[in-house]
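Bench log. Compound arrived from synthesis this morning; before running ITC I wanted a structural hypothesis for how flavin mononucleotide sits in the protein. Inputs:
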Amino acid sequence: MLEGKNILVGITGGIAAYKICSLIRLYKKAGASVRVVATPNALKFVTKLTLQTISNNDVYVEQFDIDEYRPEHIALTDADIFVIAPTTANTIGKIANGICDNLLTTTACAFTKPTLIVPAMNNNMWNNKFVQENITKLENAGYKILHPSDGFLACGTNAIGRMKEPEEIFEATVKIFEQKIQKLSGKKILITTGGTKEKIDPVRYITNNSSGKMGIALANTAAKMGAEVTLISTFKVEGNFKNIVTETAREMENAVKNNLAPQDCIIMAAAVSDYRAASYSEQKIKKTDSDRISLELVKNPDILKEISALQSNKIIVGFCAESENLLENANAKIKNKGCDYIIANDISRSDIGFNSDENEVYIIDKNLNTKHIEKDTKQNIAVKILEKIFE
Ligand SMILES: Cc1cc2nc3c(=O)[nH]c(=O)nc-3n(C[C@H](O)[C@H](O)[C@H](O)COP(=O)(O)O)c2cc1C
């Protein structure tokens, strides 16, 4: 969920500031890029050098320390989220009242994406009438507040005011991203994935190199985006969706047709064998003296073409894996199949496509408008595909 995200961590002058080193590590481990903005008082509790080393980035403190014309309080707002932890009573008061007297409070004022405030302070400070009014004001304005816990405080008492632990702040951050991407709630999506297997005899079959990873990434991502997902795959897949396992093209065709009615969208990412053995041999085919034998093949159903012809009110998406003339073949395929979108990928490249965790695709619509999605993880490619087709 945090892979590739740009997180701005704000640190203020509270005793819990030292714990933010662990939080930064959790974000980094999850694949996020972290920049830190600290108040001058925060650096009395944790050093700039430590924060720089852990975040692998510059630490921003001074508002008027500008090398080139790029005011940092505006430059820092390109982050996906601003997590201010710990947030002192002082900084809470300033943000709630639009005061911008240091780089952190000025950045908070200019920040338009989600801000997570993680208060930490002595219990009397937390219960102070003005602090509570400021918290309510921030909550009403859409700021996310991770309320402090009851626990052992640095001042020696056991009371409310203790900052939530780094793991809990991490979870709260993930949740904000999850809520932000619940764009597909209420949608029903059927996805196929994997390479079909066409039996020749009890030990042999025709199949292909498809790993099913792109379809699994689409299923996981669509579920995270709030969709109700049915994944028809050629092997069992665990996830937050209904999974139906089929082996052959004809079994997959039946499963797709039986589950078609309620769907808003069908994404056919499976590599379906074009042909199957004309007859299945109940016994293992024996080696003979002949140097050649032939195997007669018959055409499998074209599931994508059939459902595209049937459905007018559903978004139908096919995949096109080509080893040459990628766009030419993909354009011909969308015309031939009659689907709404074709996702084309180049399987001649070993760094993307089959079995790789990364991909690079073109999304082509019925009018042959083509959108190039640059090389990225299959999870991130899945987000972009789903965003495009539900645009
Ligand atoms: C040892 C020590 C610990 C402190 N811990 C906290 C704290 O946990 N929460 C808080 O709101 N203020 C705390 N303060 C007070 C803040 O440091 C003070 O209000 C300061 O002005 C906050 O500045 P800032 O919000 O610009 O970082 C502490 C002060 C000291 C000396």
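What the model suggests: The chain has two domains: 6-180, 183-389. The radius of gyration is 27 Å.
ITC booked for Thursday regardless.
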